[in-house]
């Protein structure tokens, strides 16, 4: 009887482990490394793919994901190709853009990505100003220079957003009020490159 019970417990453990594996969300790629399939350029022809990366050759507008997201983790790498080059990550963005330049989303949040001290600020487009905390000392220690690849991890759940640079936590906000929206790459100032874009959708808790 004891041996049979042990066998049943082992089987149950295997079943539960399998169920946990099935339920656990995984990262999926937003960029295939070859084309802009799955993305929509908004008011811009300055986004292209070269040598396995998304290149922004200056100019404004933005590149929009194929579907909206609510709660998620996003991982990607970027590099500014000259000092002061400026781009950004839009999240929970509406599909519509402003009719005049810079033609960015009418409503969205933006994680500022720039080769300057303003890196990793969070802006609101068509929303009240966003309250956030940013560790500028950690930012200066983690941030690399122009031409070097840098990794972003952005997690957004409910009203909470947190962003890390090269594995170092930098920015936190609990004032994210738009419920869901698109992911976007911003065109703003100077040449910029993005690669290894992937996302994991999270279930609400």
The average pLDDT value, as a whole number, equals: 91
**Order of H and E elements:** HEEEEEEEEEEHEEEEE
Please count the helical segments.
Answer: 2
* Sheet having the most strands: 9 strands, antiparallel
Main structural class: mainly beta
List the uncertain runs: 8-17
> Which fold name fills CATH's third level, the topology?
Jelly Rolls
Instruction: Tell me the domain tally.
Output: 1
CATH class type: Mainly Beta
CATH architecture: Sandwich
* Share of β-strand residues: 35-45%
Estimated radius of gyration: 20 Å
What's the helical proportion of residues? 10-25%
Amino- and carboxy-terminal Cα gap: 40 Å
Overall 3D form: globular
Output the CATH homologous superfamily. Exo-inulinase, domain 1
List how many beta strands DSSP finds.
Answer: 15
Kindly describe this structure.
The chain has helices spanning 2-23, 136-142, and strands at 28-29, 39-42, 47-50, 53-57, 62-69, 72-80, 86-93, 108-114, 122-125, 133-134, 150-157, 160-165, 168-173, 181-186, 191-201. The protein has two helices and 15 strands. The chain has a single domain, classed as Jelly Rolls, CATH 2.60.120.560. The longest helix has 22 residues, at 2-23. The protein has 205 residues and is mainly beta.
